[in-house]
Protein 1
Amino acid sequence: MTATASGQAGPAAITAPLGVAVVGHSFMGKAHSNAWRNVSAFYGSPAVAQRIIVGRDPGRAAAAADRYGWAESATDWRRVLGRTDIHIVDICTPGQLHAGLAVAALEAGKHVLVEKPLANSVAEAELMTAAAERAAAGGTMSMVGFNYRRVPALAQARAMIAGGRLGELRQLRIAYLQDWLADRAAPMTWRLRRETAGSGALGDLASHAVDQVHFLTGACITGVSARLSTFVPEREGPSGPEPVTVDDAVWATLQLDSGAVVSLEASRCATGRKNALQIEAYGSRGSLRFDLERINELHFYDAEAPDALQGAARILVTEPAHPYVEAWWPPGHVLGWDHTFTSQAADFLSAIAGGRRPEPSFADGLAVQRVLAAIESSAAKDGAAVGLPVSGPPSSSSTEAAGEAR
Amino acid sequence: MTATASGQAGPAAITAPLGVAVVGHSFMGKAHSNAWRNVSAFYGSPAVAQRIIVGRDPGRAAAAADRYGWAESATDWRRVLGRTDIHIVDICTPGQLHAGLAVAALEAGKHVLVEKPLANSVAEAELMTAAAERAAAGGTMSMVGFNYRRVPALAQARAMIAGGRLGELRQLRIAYLQDWLADRAAPMTWRLRRETAGSGALGDLASHAVDQVHFLTGACITGVSARLSTFVPEREGPSGPEPVTVDDAVWATLQLDSGAVVSLEASRCATGRKNALQIEAYGSRGSLRFDLERINELHFYDAEAPDALQGAARILVTEPAHPYVEAWWPPGHVLGWDHTFTSQAADFLSAIAGGRRPEPSFADGLAVQRVLAAIESSAAKDGAAVGLPVSGPPSSSSTEAAGEAR
Amino acid sequence: MTATASGQAGPAAITAPLGVAVVGHSFMGKAHSNAWRNVSAFYGSPAVAQRIIVGRDPGRAAAAADRYGWAESATDWRRVLGRTDIHIVDICTPGQLHAGLAVAALEAGKHVLVEKPLANSVAEAELMTAAAERAAAGGTMSMVGFNYRRVPALAQARAMIAGGRLGELRQLRIAYLQDWLADRAAPMTWRLRRETAGSGALGDLASHAVDQVHFLTGACITGVSARLSTFVPEREGPSGPEPVTVDDAVWATLQLDSGAVVSLEASRCATGRKNALQIEAYGSRGSLRFDLERINELHFYDAEAPDALQGAARILVTEPAHPYVEAWWPPGHVLGWDHTFTSQAADFLSAIAGGRRPEPSFADGLAVQRVLAAIESSAAKDGAAVGLPVSGPPSSSSTEAAGEAR
Amino acid sequence: MTATASGQAGPAAITAPLGVAVVGHSFMGKAHSNAWRNVSAFYGSPAVAQRIIVGRDPGRAAAAADRYGWAESATDWRRVLGRTDIHIVDICTPGQLHAGLAVAALEAGKHVLVEKPLANSVAEAELMTAAAERAAAGGTMSMVGFNYRRVPALAQARAMIAGGRLGELRQLRIAYLQDWLADRAAPMTWRLRRETAGSGALGDLASHAVDQVHFLTGACITGVSARLSTFVPEREGPSGPEPVTVDDAVWATLQLDSGAVVSLEASRCATGRKNALQIEAYGSRGSLRFDLERINELHFYDAEAPDALQGAARILVTEPAHPYVEAWWPPGHVLGWDHTFTSQAADFLSAIAGGRRPEPSFADGLAVQRVLAAIESSAAKDGAAVGLPVSGPPSSSSTEAAGEAR
């Protein structure tokens, strides 16, 4: 660690490979472990070393280390922060632990990746963003894991919108639909309690949708009108029926500073939809359509094609010309959901190596959090519009040169 | 005509075939003419005679009569109402003429079919509904032309929902997307002026969507939160740039008395969508999906199928077991958009012959109008929810036995 | 009738409207009646009069006349040929009657439309083609009813191929799949007996496929390798089990004189396919895809689009820029199966009025028949290739100017 | 190694983890390396150690080792066979090296996995199969890498067919379409020379299709009728234009001993198709449809569903109830192309650990080779049918109990 002007510990000096610690070993821990295990094979240097996985239960943590390729396991993340062979801390815990862990790790000079959503509240997210700003001044980087930014089709979509292919963007339709709560008999879990999960489909699913609005359009959300519903108000818990205190579904219209309007719907009761993040973007010159269940496809309608030939083209986003694809396989050899995490890790490593601030930043995560809060606030007021400050474009619209300012 | 208790003229005595007059000969006049020309060939009796077509311009009316199979043409609809060989008046004029024409025709003892939307305002619709009630007491029938109720796939969907195939219905997603106004250079027309068209995508497209909510669910809309936008505020008119005074797009969430929530979006700027009335219905036991651009298909997800076999089945709605299909062609020989009007005419004739009140009634048209008004009202209040009275189920949920009460 | 150089009766002098007689009143009689009833409304002049429908059973013929809009009915087609108010004879009978009827009608100076396939044998088709040639010399026109040439998407496909959009055409994949014989319990009918039906899926379905090869490519089929199968060799007839003497399915590869190769498959046992005429055409510059069950769509892949944007565009073939569409409805208002017959009638009338020879001609029908015969011959030789003479391009590749040569 | 009755070296004694050597480090070497790197993380024990990667060029081999996670690299595979810490040899070289390498490795007591197709000729495949039989007697296992057997949707399809869900299977339609040779300017490579590649689309693509016929149906192919074409007979090589001596496309019909017929088409000139292995299976009770470009989906039509509800269900094959899925992610979190190799490695390891003979065996690979040879032979005889001996069902139809016979 090196002393910096800000008085904080700077990033650990990089001796290749970068040492990684992951905190958490369930669903997200498994997905992130997979990313660290494979990132070098596909994206080359900087190489990483899977140093340690952290979990509360020593036996399960050891088993996870063994299975997922980590050299060691541990139960106390604080001790991990003291190790000089750890350069990156990857936080895959439940949301209520994000803030404490992330701030401590940044202050210890570790680069930090945090699973989405950034936090359970705006206040926590603000704290984390402030810590990230201070750390960045010393060269310590941070990122929030909105992994769908690394879906090649969505990165392609963003490039097309930025390049003007859609002309003036007017309407976005975004739905994120799953169905694992459609069955009334699905049991109570921590995800259905407000105190542990913060919210329901809102934080879990709509957060991705809101981040995509920022990512795809580069615009700011200036106003929100929303509704929340809980279709199944009570579910069977470990000790009998228990009230569900989060939303099953959310609806919102979002006003963008560009004049465009977004309709957003998220639900975990949409029978037959398994992981359907569906995005449609309509502009004056063309439109785009995407469904996460068909992750390799992007549909593009070019309104400037000859009249008789206009139609939505199903682009199989597996060509070398498409973002991220060249690292993987030849055309037509499709990618899956987990590849997005590997590409995310690669982007994070590349930013660290290049001294650039990675995206999406904690500030981007905070921007999402503010929209989620506005949605809850509007829903509480029966749909009446709630305004949001125009805070300058989120970092997703910044240029790569941003990093050079350091 | 026979005197009735209500003092009004009763329906003209039926001497087969029923004589029809249509008022209007542009887009809708052509579509309705097609229906009257073909209804007997597919649905049998009662036979109809295409007596007369009415239009303002004598030359164009005569040409339309010649082309579309009408025996005569006329320019004054009032004189038509006096003819005893006319039993049905079919109104295909612009909306502002609906009320005057329909009330006069009903009072003259003619059965009346009115193109949707029923009227340009709630007040007009109320007037018409009252007239329809009086006429019905004397056996004179009326109907509003929400032709999509006769799409076999949607009639099948309604039957499945009513039969419990979806279980408890929770979410509907309805979008009606077209793109003929996406091009900024599309010229000013009467459809873009509030004084002539009443509203934009709202009355033109969302009216169909709202009627489908009533039709498919049999439930009442009790509250509305909405937004309207006009993306292109000025267009080139015959004498230079002119302000557009109607909406280009509308978004709403509708609360149903059943507890279900509907998201609704309609736009005439959705580049690449030509006539996409898209409906998704999610229930506890299954879900349905429909797109008017693929009018012969209905997708049904059965959540009670064996786990490994669950998937949305693409039902080609061309089997004899499906509504309306038996009148047409063998399986796989698909129908088009215009067939819905022929089936609509058949339903109207069948109700008249059977002494039943046809659906959707003027009261159903009025129910739609009230929702459209609530949408405008909520949009004017920046999305704040606007309530609607629970007025008893619209006729669409009534049983066929309703007619027998007479 | 006027005397002509060939000594045959010339076409009846046209006094508007043209009088039409249809022979046959079951499935095809209903479809053709629909076409004659509507053709003037959509395509304008020349107007037609539905004079008479002919059937063996007087009661059923009279009922069909009443229902389908014909002025009269008759049981003896020979007497119809003598009437001077009949200008067009439309033959919708089973195949074994085509030749006798068509030749007699042509010799009586009537324009003749014959349902596909032209005949049950090459010999009959040759006879008919010779008669058609003689009649044409005197201005009497003839056409065979391959109605799918009037599917807007397929006419659009043909224009694109002819215009070079696909570059050098290399492979066609054509399947025509139905499933009404998949159930072993489906009963014996005349369609499953060789003496009445000629063949099975071959004549019924593959004939359309072969005509599309001619229509879409303008090339000649020079060689055939094929196989036939009957999966259910016996079915329950009116008096017990009976052998099925036609094919349930056919497979063939066709060599074109252009160097392209066509794979063809037709079946009436393809469970789940209702009327799936599926066509794929692959060329050096692009490809096309079509499915009759989605009759309004054509998928076009443009290999010359920018790399990252290449994808098969789903063209909704409902624009004024597309063939036939302008006669019907606005964009997105889809057509069905029966509209192809109306457009076919319009093309026939237009050719008669313009003194052009309509397409597909009897010679085109004969060309199809020869390919079907070669398929049977190859199948009998266990797949060994059977050659076909290059007979010059079928008329489908001729220019419209052909008519002017008269 | 232990001596066995057959006098061959038996399998190396297993001391966990199993040591793996891979030969080859280009496309397939990368894909197989990925499998070995990840198999333990998803499928658990037996664990494997990535010992060594072998390649001709020492520098490139070392780089591959570094990148893909191998402990060492080497240039001489013969020396690798002598190492006692290597238990598995995975052959990813061009086809002409398969036989020599595989036989030597088996004789050295190594378990062997060979990329498909098994060999470049029937003679080589026979040699390899004999060696595999001898080795198996001593407990040394072998497998050929038809990785698409591990696509969850195809494994699910096989289970459904075996379980009778399709009833009597009648028709299969299989196409494997790519387009990387559609452009006439695509350069000459070793894949387009007969001496190096054996054949073109036939060995490269049709081999997968033929293996799927065996895998899905468990039936034997008893006869073949086929055609081959080379659309672009000359391409630009390193020293000027060179003749292409392999096929661009192949068409065949295959007769199964069950009575079913398969149509097969493979092409590398099918513009717009990137990796489209498309399979349709039609039976008396239902049908299935699959496209490798949508690797997570299987479409199932159940002909025994109620009439009005029949339709092809799009099954998203990502449920725990589906084959292989449980090892990966929750429902809707889709897999990609490379996951099939990881599952293939898992199956291989599980068979080794359980003392069962893995599938597809070299005998299965030989069976495919014989069909490919018959296709070439039929094509050389202009499509005349070529018979194949019924050799008993390939191992793919054997039960798991097969392994117990040891």
Protein 2
Amino acid sequence: MDSFHPPLRTLMGPGPSDIHLRIREAMSRPAIGHLDPAFIAMMDEVKEGLRAVFRTKNALTFPVSAPGSAGMEICFVNLVEPGDKVIICQNGAFGGRMQENVERCGGVPIVVACEWGAPIDVEQVDDICRQNQDAKILAFVHAETSTGVRANAAALCALARAHHMLSIVDAVTSLGGSPVDVDAWGADAVYSGTQKCLSCTPGLSPVTFSAQAIEKVRTRKTKVQSWFLDLNLLLGYWEGDAKNKNKNKKTRAYHHTAPINALYGLHESLVMLHEEGLDNAIARHTKMHNVLKAGLDAMGLQFLVAEEHRLPQLNSILIPDGVQDADVRTRLLQDFNLEIGAGLGPLTGKIWRIGVMGHSARFENITLCLSALETTLAAMQAPITPGKALAAAQAAYQDAYTA
Amino acid sequence: MDSFHPPLRTLMGPGPSDIHLRIREAMSRPAIGHLDPAFIAMMDEVKEGLRAVFRTKNALTFPVSAPGSAGMEICFVNLVEPGDKVIICQNGAFGGRMQENVERCGGVPIVVACEWGAPIDVEQVDDICRQNQDAKILAFVHAETSTGVRANAAALCALARAHHMLSIVDAVTSLGGSPVDVDAWGADAVYSGTQKCLSCTPGLSPVTFSAQAIEKVRTRKTKVQSWFLDLNLLLGYWEGDAKNKNKNKKTRAYHHTAPINALYGLHESLVMLHEEGLDNAIARHTKMHNVLKAGLDAMGLQFLVAEEHRLPQLNSILIPDGVQDADVRTRLLQDFNLEIGAGLGPLTGKIWRIGVMGHSARFENITLCLSALETTLAAMQAPITPGKALAAAQAAYQDAYTA
């Protein structure tokens, strides 16, 4: 068993995305205790930085010490009680996972099924809400990572409010790459991941909860089924003792040992986002998407999702006829050190997912991706139009600068 | 918001322990995808390395992508079904947390209460097992981090077998610092943490499950209440598709995005442990404990735990009369950059916990700890004997070399 030296990949799958050297260096700094005053001060900055990215004033905004799937679970186990009806919009893999979560909490899922690759039909959801006035929660995925579809989060959160339901929103792939307007939407529980548009290491899940959501947690009739994810306990660590009003002498109750070095990384990624400006970062994702799109269009490749519903950071491309999914991805990885993503569930073997996220959303990555994909497909005699992608990307690059 | 540069602490609390530069550098390496063949090969080495430390042949041995408290929870949510009786030995904070876990799974906890700081009474547990022949599980903490007491794990696991119960063992503080003999004990589910005697970053929880434990999970009547921690699903990622028999072409089912950089760190810490040799590492923890103990004894400080039940890596010291707990720890942190731990629960303000774990278990750390503690206590005119600790430590150091 020898030390592991990873190959140097360019990560353009559905996450993790490339991690900037500043963030990797931050993670390599010496550990300090999770109750050290210096660490607690850093935690407060992480919370403040996350509030800025979530565009919220929610006091309870923090990173869960586990990946995005635990972020999803913390929302459901805290807000769903046995017997609670939960309306779930399902147009991809992660809507399906929400259903699993509701069932495992003893809730009653009411599924609004939409086609994978199509957007959530807000009117259809409104109908279901009208038919289920006793439902407690409306849950949906803002940025479906399995398809690249964006949901109309503002409309769906407004629907939830109108029907006196809480909303649970999956913003794993959107946070930092598309506007996530928690307060403007009136969203109640939102979870994300750090390994997508925040370009940090995987393993943390930023979450934010509205006052209404906290009220629901505090007035539950049953205990939260997970000790690790019980917000009533986590509040003692992330918020300090509520009985202690002296802000400079907050006491923190020990709950679990926080992942110190990963949090150093998240802190640095939030500093970098602050330096760039959230609006600029979001605009950058769109610019890079446009350059990628110009090249893919010129090659004659088709997108799964209609243009108006596409996420800039997650591009689902139909695999051309006669081309073997895995053969292409293996060549890209072996010959170009480039990772793109496979399809999930019913889209396995039918699409590739090209991520343009965080530090991966750079012109050099897009150029590599277009060149490598064209070279590989041309070598396989796939039905594409070769020789035009780079010129099209160059024109889109020009547009991005004059815009 | 500026980049965070942590103070350079010496960590001698109950964890995290100091992280060796090699491990911190490993964590700063560029990320690759969690389904990349190079990453999967590394995962296989991590599993093999963990089997060596757990001294087990258990196929299902892997690091949970979350801290030790999630490691505890993965054992209980998978093995306990509603109505199952679980006998819990409780002689510290973590036995209490086990009870919380059982209750939240709908299980029926039967608590064998022992004094905090005292060992688990095996005969008492045997009596309780005889009175509860229908109990399904016996759970106990091998190394109680809240007190520094070692349990007789071999005897307790044997009891569980004799009474046809599964055993769940907390080895968070013991793994890598004391012998954890999973196969020799016949333990069924064992969880640990990476931030103690493995000296890696917090945020991962190594676990191992026996064939009997897996059989129980596979034949459950109810779904595991946590999606994130469901072993039936995690098997697909960590073990590959059971239907695919070709070992070189294992397919891995996507479950969640693994914490790539933290796993680089764990891999490196296992490489380092392999280089040192597990037996040598365990012996080193005992040597360092003896040096620390010699110094503390010479100062006239008392241990909470009787000598024969002490863990070398977690030393609970009674706070001398008239000395304010927090004042001392604040001085140690501010003036010596040294972290030691506070007491938990009923031992708050009554003990300090001095960790001698992993990379923190070095002579230079022990020397600093003894000097700083003596200097601080002497300055506060605490009732100790000053001026003798270093000479006593030197004699013990000499003994360690001649042994």
